[in-house]
Amino acid sequence: MTRLPGPFAVLSLALCALLLLAGCVPGTGSGAGSDPAAGPGSGTGRGDGPRWQPRPGTDWQWQLGGRLDTSVDVPVYDIDGFDHSGDTVERLHRDGRKVICYLSTGAWEDFRPDADDFPASVIGRGNGWEGERWLDIRRTDVLEPIMAERFDMCRDKGFDAVEPDNMDGYRNRTGFPLTAADQLRYNRLIARLAHERGLAVGLKNDLDQIPQLVGAYDFAVNEQCAQYGECEQLTPFVEAGKAVFHAEYELPTDRFCADSRRLGLSSLLKEYELGAWRRAC
């Protein structure tokens, strides 16, 4: 929070005290309520209220492929931001769900409607998925306005939060000499773009930079930390009262659910296609 000078600081402190008594402070990580998915914020993601922040242990559904199944009885859905309309988001809201907007912010996808907005100079090596290539995240002059438009789309459709994917390019062969400092700068930019639009934002993977980024992000999304023995690294999010949405693909639930419960993770077994099928811990 920016320090305010003189009498404005006194006024700000008084206002914060009133908000704390009300149990609702915009953009913070504490708070209570009957909704298990909600931290202090229960706004719709359109910037009309405190920013949503899910608490540790919040159950979720992650579906990026196939026909969307809206019948899963969980408080949080994570779905593709391009593939679904505002009507879908509104329907999930009517059912009491919070809705996360999946976007790739670190890789170019040739199948997206804005693919031609990316100049060839920022498109690097393939990232292992068909039609996807790493982006040169140093080129924020190019990428920031494109990502801002994508986040505008999520906000305008009524999403509560964003899941930005491919946020650890510096640890991969991208075709660019990316450094840890480049990644931190870019990931902080992504968090700022979300927050400016009233959207919560989750840190996707990027485990090594959690200590530097946990304060900038509202929750985490992780793949396969149990398979690779990395789940303990997500503890800073849980200790901060922020959910860790976690998925495994290859381990049976009896190999990771006990540890997930101990660590406070929101864990699922999913198939790689990320269709409707799920098995929760």
From TrEMBL:
Q: Where is the Glycoside-hydrolase family GH114 TIM-barrel domain?
A: 60-276
Q: Cite the InterPro entries for this sequence.
A: Aldolase_TIM (IPR013785), GH (IPR017853), GH114_TIM-barrel (IPR004352)
Q: Which residues form the signal peptide?
A: 1-22
Q: Which Gene3D superfamilies match?
A: Aldolase class I
Name the UniProt key words of this record, in alphabetical order.
Signal
Keyword hit for Kinase = no
- What's the domain of life for this entry? Bacteria
Instruction: Enumerate the residue ranges of region (Disordered).
Output: 30-60
- Name of the protein described by the UniProt record: Glycoside-hydrolase family GH114 TIM-barrel domain-containing protein
Source organism of this protein record? Streptomyces prasinopilosus
Taxonomy-wise, where does this protein's organism fall, top ranks first? Bacteria, Bacillati, Actinomycetota, Actinomycetes, Kitasatosporales
